[in-house]
Design brief:
The chain is an all-alpha fold. Helices cover 84% and strands 0% of the residues. It is globular and about 40 Å long. The protein starts with a helix and ends with a helix.
Length: 126
């Protein structure tokens, strides 16, 4: 099994059992290794998952930083764009939030991601 996949799976397992601190430690260690090895795919995936855990903990600034790291490695990921839009909205940076939601919409439309388009439509109506 790929080392980064193992780190991700262990981190998610720890998070699933409620140990967010250990999960974040595991994901951040994996992210550091992936960054050093220039493994963009894994850097993006590990950063996004760590960002989601920070978001879950209410640590918005840390979540934002990690989502930005994820996007630097995978700029065409609509789920990360959506998550970053959410964080920016909660922080009060509405211009950035709208920019990320718009990018999410464009990426989702071009890839035919119906679930994300439905999520964006639901968000727009509320």
């Amino acid at each position: 099994m790929n080392n980064y996949r193992r780190v991700l799976e262990e981190g998610l397992s720890l998070a699933g059992s409620g140990d967010l601190e250990a999960a974040l430690l595991k994901l951040h260690e994996g992210l550091e290794q992936a960054n050093k090895a220039k493994e963009q795919k894994w850097s993006a995936l590990l950063a996004r998952n760590a960002g989601l855990l920070h978001l879950r903990k209410g640590e918005l600034n840390e979540a934002r930083k990690l989502f930005e790291v994820s996007l630097a490695n995978d700029p065409a990921n609509p789920a990360t764009r959506y998550a970053l839009g959410e964080v920016c909205e909660r922080i009060g940076d509405m211009a950035a939030a709208e920019n990320h939601y718009r990018s999410c919409y464009e990426l989702s439309k071009s890839s035919g991601d119906k679930e994300m388009l439905e999520l964006l439509e639901k968000r727009r109506r509320t």
